[in-house]
């Protein structure tokens, strides 16, 4: 009888072991793969032009690659020359489309002129590149024709704000360089193409 009980116990033990080995363990849920993140821009993103300068750049900023790079660490900042006098220009180009050209003024070692041609640049009231004449809200009496490298444009100023110019391209206008188009022509063709800040009024 004792032998029979021992045999029966052994059979039960083997059956239990068989059940344990026949059920595979469920794999642990895998963690979701991390999505690659785009590198965040460092420094000022939106550059607002106003009477005091453009963003963190003004007439006290030194005109050299190092000083400008400190403001825009994620941009390509380079020195260039232009014109017969080989005037120094610091160019700023950033992956988000920011385009700035920075020149000297009466003090050639400090910023005297900033041109914002593209990317996240705005005027003091939120004006954006590409705005048409009506949206910008100017009258032709507040404008003058551009000179030298801007001779094909119209530059306008808000009353009481002589340092910040709004540069309008005049596509298709074939009049003399000193002629301001009629308002009707401006409404049809003029588009805001840049902001230009000067340390000293012209």
List keywords for this structure.
protein yfey like fold, globular, 8-stranded antiparallel β-sheet, 3-stranded mixed β-sheet, 28% strand, 202 residues, alpha+beta, single chain
General description of the model:
The chain has 202 residues and is α+β, with helices and mostly antiparallel strands. It has one domain (47-198): Sandwich (protein yfey like fold), CATH 2.60.460.10. Helices cover 19% and strands 28% of the residues. The chain contains four helices and eleven strands, in the order αββαβββββαβββαβ. The chain has helices at 2-22, 65-71, 133-136, 183-189; strands spanning 47-50, 53-54, 76-82, 87-93, 99-104, 111-118, 121-122, 143-145, 153-156, 164-169, 191-198. An eight-stranded antiparallel β-sheet has the order 3-4-5-6-11-10-9-8, with helices on one face. The protein has a three-stranded mixed β-sheet with strand order 2-1-7, with no helix packed on it. β1 (47-50) and β2 (53-54) form a beta hairpin. The longest helix has 21 residues, at 2-22. The N and C termini lie far apart (120 Å).
